[in-house]
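User: I'm putting together a teaching handout on how multi-component assemblies are represented. Below are the sequence lines for each component of a complex, exactly as they appear in our records. Could you produce the 3D structure of the whole assembly as structure tokens, so the students can see both representations side by side? Please keep the chain order the same as the input.
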Amino acid sequence: MTEQALIKMSEEQIAAALETHSEWIELNNQIQRTFAFDDFITSMKFVNAIAEYAEQVQHHPDMLIRYNKVTLTVSTHDASGITQKDFELATKADGLV
Amino acid sequence: MTEQALIKMSEEQIAAALETHSEWIELNNQIQRTFAFDDFITSMKFVNAIAEYAEQVQHHPDMLIRYNKVTLTVSTHDASGITQKDFELATKADGLV
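Assistant: Of course. Below is the structure of the complete assembly, with chains in the same order as your input.
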């Protein structure tokens, strides 16, 4: 992670990043995506993979598990907004499905 | 699980059950408790223990993980309300902490 990862992104930067993360939306100064899986077990495998990554990079998304659906909501508290670190997590999550 | 576990409970029955599950609240025809842990890893251990139980009994709560906090929200879709099965899950969750 570079220092830049912790600088709050501008609306223009967020809009550009969302173009390459088309399943994600911006919502209340956070980015969010809901992933749909075949069943609960697959949801849990995904959540545990995200949890492992989150611990590695010390950046923890909110995760809502609803049977076969998992919603990730990501922001950077230290920057009071959305940073490159959030999009790195989004890229990681997108790569898992 | 008995057949009775799937019968929607009355408000009186729910009120009585909440007396022995004092950390839980009733909310929109569901019961809910937020558990606070020391850290994210402990949250994940709890979530995985609940997930294992949920698969065993085929009754899956909604689980929201927010770093060191986990919120369980439980209802029985087949009964369109709160059943004994929900309080069995609450008892299991309470026993884990």
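A couple of points students might notice: Residues 34 and 71 of chain A are 4 Å apart (CA to CA). The longest helix of chain A spans residues 40-57.
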